Amino acid sequence: MSIEFLLNGERIEVEAPPMSRLLDVLRRELGLTGTKEGCGEGECGACTVLLEDVPVLSCLLPLVQCEGRRVDTIEGLARSEAGPLIERLVSLGGVQCGACTPGIVVATCALLRQTENPTRAQVAQALAGNLCRCTGYEGIHRAIQALAEP
Ligand code: FES
Ligand code: FES
Asked: 116-119: long-range contacts at Cβ-Cβ below 8 A with a sequence spacing of 24 or more?
């Protein structure tokens, strides 16, 4: 089946079974390996992408649900609005092994699209589904709060 959608601002058409996981299509068919597979069961948030600005777990999302819709991955976001956030995550201790980082960046971009200067509680809530085993989240919070500083 042919599924058409907007991926990182470009219209694309993918030939794949409609119930394929979006995560597999991104990584295997389209070579977009920035989106990570952690648990593969909807528990860790490593595979987070934006569907119409809403963070979704691509390991649970059938490709058919993307038909005619807008999907943004870490690759597209890193080229645009996520640049300053990624820089601060790196410089302020928000990245260690990096396995969670794409999902954290994508989920944070969704938050920042709605709330320019989120509180720590709002950040914690937005990242509640994104597990990080390394940083203890302090560096991640520091990086996000630092975006508001001149
Ligand atoms: S890989 Fe999708 S939530 Fe863990
Ligand atoms: S930096 Fe390793 S899981 Fe978050």
From this structure: 116/148, 117/148, 118/144
The pTM (predicted TM-score) of the whole model is 0.97
CB atoms within 10 A of CB 8: 20
pLDDT digits (tens, 9 = 90+) for 88-132: 999 999 999 999 999 999 999 999 999 999 999 999 999 999 999
Q: From 101, 104, 138, 141, give the residue whose CB has the most ligand 2 atoms within 8 Å, as the site to mutate.
A: 101
Residue minimizing CA distance to atom 3 of ligand 1: 42
- In order of their start, the domains of the chain are 2-72 (3.10.20.30), 78-146 (1.10.150.120)
